[in-house]
Each structure stands twice: as structure tokens, then as C-alpha cells.
Amino acid sequence: MISSIFKRALSIRRAGPEDCDFVTTLVQRLAQMVLKTKKMPIIEGIREGYKGMMDDPEHYFIFIAEEKDKNNKIAKLGVAITSSAIMLFNGGPCIDLQELIVDEKARGKGVGSALIKHVIQFSKDNGYFAIDLVQPPDTDEFHEKRTKFYT
């Protein structure tokens, strides 16, 4: 089997202003899923919020997972949106993993796991004491699957 011989060329990088459409669309799709709406919701201020995060790279870290497709074109697959804070309980800085979203076409292919590993390594490399995970309430249909993934 050819796919077992070749490893994926998945890469993860910091997001830039040029990634706004990709990131905000994934966040809107996540909101659509959580809210169980037929139409993708319009989130007021989402683009301005993204710009604010880009303007404060010391406190906001957005990571994009991507790979080259068969035509050698870069395909964006997922995003991890994080921020930094000082937690007195932990005695120092920590990372808040606010959102982890993988494009529907890339789910089940290790993209989410790669993003998590990247956030963990980034935290270690930059002296963060902990990673705080933000999840929706445990009342939605994806709670068990999501909890198992993060565990």
C-alpha cells in the first residue's frame, strides 16, 4: 500500500493576517455545529477580533495545520486558537486552548492530534506551566467523543 510507505507532509505554522478567512470560516462552522443551525451564523466582530489577535502576538497564538496536495498546492486543514495568561494557581504563565477546529474533509487523519502536540511543544519551549482547555458544556452530542480525544 503506497499510503503506508509515504508519510504525510503535514506542517504547522503561526497564522498570519492572510489566514483570516480560513480561521473565521472554521470558527463559524464550529458555531453552526454547536448551535445546530442550518445556515452558518454570522458572528459580529469576528474579523476585528482576529485582527486584534494578530496585533498582539505575545498573548495570542494561532496555529495553522497544512499540507501540500497532489498538485503541490498548500491546503489548510485545521487551526488551534490559543492565548496566554498568568494563572496564580499554577504559579506562572499558561496557555488557554480556546478552539481546535479541523476542516471536515481532514478529520480522522491526525490533524487535530498534530495540532495538540504542537501546542504542547510550543508551551514547553516557551516556559508555560500548563495548558488550560476550554470546552463547550458537556450537554452536547459530541462531549463524549471530544473528551476521549483530548484525554
Structure write-up:
This protein is α+β, with helices and mostly antiparallel strands and 151 residues long. Helices cover 34% and strands 28% of the residues. Helix 2 (20-35) crosses helix 3. It is globular, with a radius of gyration of 16 Å. The model is unreliable at 1-6 (pLDDT under 50).
C-alpha termini separation: 31 Å
Q: What's the count of strands?
A: 5
Give the % helix: 25-40%
Compute the number of helices. Answer: 5
Instruction: Please write the string of helix (H) and strand (E) elements.
Output: HEHHEEEHEH
Poorly predicted tracts of residues: 1-6
Note the overall shape.
Answer: globular
Q: How many strands, what sense, and barrel or not for the largest sheet? A: 5 strands, mixed
Estimated radius of gyration: 16 Å
Structure class: alpha+beta
Strand content: 25-35%
Fill in the keyword field for this structure.
151 residues, alpha+beta, 5 helices
Task: Annotate the secondary structure layout.
Blueprint: H1 2-5, E1 11-14, H2 20-35, H3 46-54, E2 60-68, E3 74-87, E4 92-102, H4 111-125, E5 130-133, H5 143-150
Parallel strand pairs: 4-5
Antiparallel strand pairs: 1-2, 2-3, 3-4
Helix pairs in contact: 2-3
